[in-house]
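If you are new to this repository, start here. Below is one unmodified record pulled from the training split, so you can see the exact layout before writing a loader.
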Amino acid sequence: MRRRGFTLIELLVVIAIIAVLIALLLPAVQSAREAARRAQCTNNLKQIALACHNYATQIGSFPPGGINDNGWGGPAWNGHVMLLPQIEMGSLYNAINIGKNNGDPQNYSTVAVVVINAYICPSDRSDTPINNMYWAYANSWGTVIRMAGTNYTLSSGDMKTNGIFDYLSSEVGGPQWGCKNTFKGFFGECSLGAVRSLRDCTDGSSNTFLAGENSPNMNGALAWTNADATFGITTIPLNWMMKLDDGDKDTNGDVCKRSTTVLGARNHQHCRYNQTYNWGFRSLHPGGAHFAMGDGSVRFVKQTINPVTYQALGTISRGEIVSSDSF
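And here is the target side for that same chain:
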């Protein structure tokens, strides 16, 4: 007796069922992968927060955000470098010639292009050095250079940047960009290495940002060794995207380019080389970004957060009252 095979219609039905199952399965797989990446990102920020507290236990304060003078001069190392021994990267720290800048031959190939996994969020695809960093090489800022990036920046508060969102800042006058010890968060630069400690945080450590997310793919200067870029401020809205690269055109006709004209412009608002806006916190996670708080915890903050609440979370001693269910 001959065995009956599948008819064409039956085969098409089977194929259709398989296609539907795949269509249902793929989003679940992608969601699971993103959940795993977010978990790793959360863990990275947790390690950075613990490193800050371990540093404070040993030294008496959090590390300086930037070791540079009031005019951005000097070798310009940063808190990320100071934390290396606390994240089991003591050998890399010992390889740094602190008296030289991050692009000096003594530091470049052995330090500046080294990717540190603890400083990289797996959702961001920044696990190789970035080829077109601009304003990332201390003492030769205009040089386009290849350097390893970071996805985590230290909180500098609600500082002005001469942009369209400066009205949200509590800074009087300015903008000072946190220079001369005017920064309102835990970390600042161009302040001769000024530091903060937990006792300075009168607003409550559980309601104050310590560090948060950013992306070298949306911040053209975000090398982990660059003291002029490894800060985040709350004046810029959370997840304000800066995806336009060299030659890309914004919706208003602005053309993104690596130049000092774009570097500090109020327009070119989505160009990754514009330091008026790329100081904001941002991530590729849908709906928000992760933040390490002053008490060492890590929170996911929605990008729809109230701007007033967001500014309050960035400052350490302005006396704002922030409830835990408001962010």
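Two things worth knowing about this chain: DSSP finds six helices and nine strands in the chain. The helical segments are 8-59, 79-82, 90-94, 108-112, 260-263, 307-314.
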